[in-house]
Design a protein that fits this description.
heterodimer, A: 126 residues, mainly beta, seven-stranded mixed β-sheet, four-stranded antiparallel β-sheet, 11 strands, B: 108 residues, six-stranded mixed β-sheet, globular
Chain lengths: 126, 108
Amino acid sequence: EVQLVESGGGLVKPGGSLRLSCAASALTLSNAWMNWVRQTPGKGLEWVGRIKSKSDGGTTQHAAPVKGRFSISRDDSKDVVFLQMNSLKTEDTAVYYCTTSLNGDPAYYYYGMHVWGQGTTVIVSS
Amino acid sequence: SFVLTQPPSVSVAPGETARITCGGNNIGSKKVHWYQQRPGQAPLLVIYFDFDRPSEIPERFSGSNSGNTATLTISRVEAGDEADYYCQVWDFNSDHWLFGGGTKLTVL
């Protein structure tokens, strides 16, 4: 069974930085297009951004609220995807999920997010 | 930018049919996905591409999409269906994923 595991969440002061990681079991992440999605307390889901596989250009997209502050990257040698979060604001407080398509196959990227991690919590507070 | 509108809440008695809508300008021209999120859990894809179901999702879950409204229908509702439900589309113009605000399904 494909599983994603996020880590790196924690408490950080406004203006600070944090790096989240996403690793997988039963899946080679290097082939997958990966998303980050967040959920603020008591609120809905918000897509944060995406990174394509290196073989598909490795390009990224970021949602407007995080553009210029957050950056998605990948280390295929370690089979990990990262979300670097800088200049954090209190409104970035959320559970952050990494997600991918069915079996991590990019051919299914637009078929919805079939695989989700359990999430990691980020709290931005002074 | 494209906006998805869901009712905040829907209530239904056990055994009845729940319909959760997702409104958007000409949403029928897009492919809609639906997620179920139980308290304390990660979201689970229950419908993709308007009406397809992942193999592990019961047939009681179905979807449709036409005009300005997509609908998730849950037949013979059970207590375990009580959850938040989110619709989602991919916006071609921005190359971004968009989520609706979510609907809380209460089983009376």
